[in-house]
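Hey L., structure's done. Input below.
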Amino acid sequence: MPIRKVGVRGIGAYTPPKVVTNFDLEKIVETSDEWIFTRTGIRERRIAEPDMATSDLSYMASKIALDSANLTPGDLDLIIVATVTPDMFFPATACILQDKLGATCPGFDLSAGCSGLIYALSVGAQFIANGMYDNILVVGGETLSKIIDWQDRSTCVLFGDAASAVILGPVDTGGFRSFVLGADGGGGKLLELPAGGSRLPASYETISQRLHFIKMNGRDVFKFAVRVMEEASLEAIDKAGLTLKDIDLFIPHQANIRIIESAAERLNVPKDKFFVNLDRYGNTSSASVGLALYEAFWEGKIQKGSKILMVGFGAGLTWGACVLEW
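Output:
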């Protein structure tokens, strides 16, 4: 069977309505708007209500993506949800989302931290390329506010909640031209949620020691991120048979403006070729790249034939990059 070209047939994104600004955080922890913005580039983030789960945000983003692709839930052949904040360990959030949508297809979750959407896109693309499926819904959804330690000023200022959705399908022209995935489990301790799994199940001790919240070594994650952003980007561009000058728009994981600026400098690419919405949403993990792709499209920064590089990095440690011709 011939390998088919795979492209984006629809996109969607959703952020909860509640906005938490840096000034709001000043009332919770010892910090300031100036301290947060100068170090991260973040001014505000969206926070889900207590009764809102990852599947709820994912449902809203998926409906938008389906509408943009002119498809119904019944047209879907597979659902993949990339998340580190599933509704629960099981059933998979993809199965919960399938039920919410009224779809009948199989579904599964994928955990690759902030690289999750790119990992999931690469998995979905293979099912379509080999002819097994025609319409695949790939979602990056997170409610990181549920696992943030609001007493830890080094992490609580960074994260937000969101979901992004991409409909993959066969295309005649354009489509994905390359994928690059990587992992270094030796760096796993740099960014982790220590308790709640089989290693440290919930107990009085894990709760009292606040081990059910994100723990991060910011300095070392920063150095890792800057390095792999450059390396993964160059590898993906080379695999696509292109050069840096051929890329019309760079869509990086929105974690820290200093990381993005450092990557642009190392690649010797003008900063205005990097799409940034970090200031309004913060780090939304697996939702981040898809949310930026969605906004870049609707802001007119992506046209038919545009060559886009998406690149992410996150817990694992993981990284991923891909080149997409719109």
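The chain is about 35% helix and 25% strand. The mean pLDDT is 97.

-- N.
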